[in-house]
Every structure is written in structure tokens, then in C-alpha cells.
Amino acid sequence: MIDQFLKSGSNQRRDDFGGSIENRARFLLEVVQAVTSAVGPGKVGIRLSPVTPANDAFDPDPQPLFDYVVRELAAFGLAYIHVIEGATGGPRELPERPFDYTGLRRAYRAAAGKGAWMVNNGLDKNLAQQVLADGADLVAFGRPFIGNPDLVERLRKGKPLVESDRGTWYGGGAKGYTDYPALKNT
Ligand SMILES: Cc1cc2nc3c(=O)[nH]c(=O)nc-3n(C[C@H](O)[C@H](O)[C@H](O)COP(=O)(O)O)c2cc1C
């Protein structure tokens, strides 16, 4: 819902929550204000997806929008900001929609001083190490954790990874979803 407010492809409002970047970001910032007031900013993280075109929530000009968003978020002292690089579950680069993730991180750090920066999307061990060397603080893995409940141990030991079966994703049951064995059981 926050993403739908942020992006002009989905936000068709004509009130204080639509139109300008400041207006489209208002809902996000009010939510963050409310949640951080209730539980403390150190317990709140946010995930941003500048170019994922999910559910028509796309923006033709995401750079100034998300640069503004992270500069505004900098004031809260959040636990982390998590950025999906590219289209979630898809390509990390979208030639038709280039985005400067390093610039985004710098904009945040310049405003926040500090603050954990997490990235994900299509990472393997090498790419994750590269992303960390380039300046991210944390990496996140999604799909690899489905087939490999002991993913961290496998990465640490250089063990092969199991490819999970897409046919059982979103299935609502354990089969092929949370029942892949750990290494010691294989
Ligand atoms: C089965 C499945 C369920 C997912 N559910 C969500 C979700 O509820 N919300 C969300 O923002 N992303 C969801 N994602 C996307 C992942 O969080 C992640 O962004 C994506 O898989 C890319 O990261 P990866 O290459 O490490 O898997 C889901 C992905 C998978 C495979």
C-alpha cells in the first residue's frame, strides 16, 4: 500500500496524498512516524522497491522520488533501510528503468550520518560479497532459503545449494516450502 501511494503509476489521488513527490511520500512518512512512536525507531525497518513494477505500482521517474524518501527517513533513526535492487524476483538491471542505488545509499547516509543499509534480489555468495564490499551493511536472501534452511552454513562452507521447486511456492502448506532438509540430514 505504501508503494502504491509512492508511485505515480498507481497513485491517482488529487488530495494531500497525491501529485507531488512530497504528497505521495506523505503516507509512508506518517506510517513511519506512527510506528516508530509506538515501538521505537530501533525496532522499525522499511523495505523500498524503487523499480519493481508490481501491481501497477511503477514510477516513470523513481530516482528523485526515492532520493527524497530516504532523506526524509534519515531523521527517524530506523533500524535499517532495505532496498530491492531491480525487479523483485526478476532482473537486477532494468535497462528501460536505470536506477542509481549507490547514489540512493549516499543520499541516505549523507542525511542520516549512519544507519544500516540492506539490499537483496538475486544474490548469490559472490554477488553478496561484492554488494557488501561496495558499501551495503547487510544482504538478504529469499528464494535460496526455501530450498536451503541452513543457507548460512552452506554459504560459509561453500556447499552446493538446492534449487527450490517454484510449483510449491505460495502453496499454503509445508510441502516443498518449509520441508527441505538441512545438510546434516541429507
Ligand atoms: C514464495 C515467495 C514469497 C514472497 N513473499 C513476499 C512478500 O510477501 N512480500 C514481499 O515484499 N516480497 C515477497 N517475496 C519476494 C522476496 O522477498 C524477494 O524480494 C525476492 O524473492 C527476491 O529475492 P531473492 O532473489 O533473494 O529471492 C516473496 C518471494 C517468494 C519466492
Estimate the strand proportion. Answer: 5-15%
Structural class: alpha/beta
The tally of structural domains comes to 2
**Overall 3D form:** globular
CATH class placement of the largest domain: Alpha Beta
Distance between the termini: 41 Å
**CATH homologous superfamily of the largest domain - what is it?**
Aldolase class I
Overall mean pLDDT stands at 95
> What small-molecule ligands were found?
flavin mononucleotide
Q: What is the CATH topology descriptor of the largest domain?
A: TIM Barrel
Tell me the total number of β-strands. 4
CATH architecture assignment of the largest domain: Alpha-Beta Barrel
Q: Strand sequence of the main sheet, in spatial order? A: 1-2-3-4
**SSE string:** HHEHEHEHEHH
What's the gyration radius in Å? 18 Å
| Count of alpha/pi helices | 7
Low-confidence stretches: none
Instruction: Sketch the major β-sheet.
Output: 4 strands, parallel
Helix percentage: 25-40%
